[in-house]
Amino acid sequence: MAYRQTPAVEARLQDNRSRILAAARALVSEGGWGEAQVANVAAAAGMATGTVYRYFPSKAELFAEVLSAVSQREVDVLAEIARSGGPATPRLHTAVATFVRRAMRNPRLAYALIAEPCDREIDEARLTYRAAISEVIRSIIESGREANEMRTDVRPDVAATVIVGGFMEGLVGPLSPLGRQQRRTTEAYRREVAQLADQIALMACASVAAPPSNVRRIPRRPT
């Protein structure tokens, strides 16, 4: 007869896995991927290093799952905004601004997820979820085109790729609060983040806004 794990054993195994992931995320939030060595993760989770490897055969697999879990939550939040209905421009503004504000709650983790040099497996997971975010933004732009709110001379997928690249650069670029050490609990920091989120969202919306009917479009040059 095949052995079947009891509910208690299954719960314990799942609890161990959750503790490992939580410990790894906390370490990445504090010091990036370099801080989250397996020995450090094991110590933070209160278990032996070998136990961590029972659940995650390699450090890269552990990191990729941390990135996937955090990133999927952000995709889900944006998808809910995209499905909320109403004009597309306010939805696009809300989606971009929400992403920025949520990322800036933990800027060190945001940098690790978006731009910090990392192993190939982590970078592949990063690209997967960046593509998922771009797809959500594309869906908003597509609905805006159908409602004549947004320009029709640029493909929605191209526009979405540019917008996502732009707001992620806004988070990790030299003008971002990420570039300065600030206490995230201060009112000044919260105001700066709110302003940054609004400015990035305004630029995203402006890039796909339908031109006024009295504005003559510049003809394209033959390629």
How would you summarize the topology of this molecule?
Elements: H1 7-31, H2 38-45, H3 49-55, H4 59-82, H5 88-103, H6 107-114, H7 120-146, H8 156-172, H9 187-208
Helix pairs in contact: 1-2, 1-4, 1-6, 2-3, 4-5, 4-7, 5-7, 5-9, 7-8, 8-9
The overall number of domains is 2
What is the radius of gyration computed over CA atoms, rounded to a whole number of angstroms?
A: 21 Å
Average pLDDT metric = 85
Shape: elongated
Secondary-structure element sequence?
Answer: HHHHHHHHH
* Biggest pleated-sheet summary: none
CATH-derived architecture of the largest domain? Orthogonal Bundle
Strand fraction equals under 5%
Q: What is the CATH C-level name of the largest domain? A: Mainly Alpha
Number of strands: 0
Q: Tally the helices: what do you get?
A: 9
Q: List segments where confidence is low: pLDDT < 50 over at least 5 consecutive residues.
A: none
Give the terminus-to-terminus CA distance.
70 Å
Identify the CATH homologous superfamily of the largest domain.
Tetracycline Repressor, domain 2
Fraction of residues in helices?
55-70%
Characterization of the model:
The chain has 223 residues and is mainly alpha-helical. The chain folds into two domains: 50 residues, Homeodomain-like (Arc Repressor Mutant, subunit A), CATH 1.10.10; 149 residues, Tetracycline Repressor, domain 2, CATH 1.10.357.10. The protein is built from nine helices and no strands. The protein is elongated, with a radius of gyration of 21 Å.
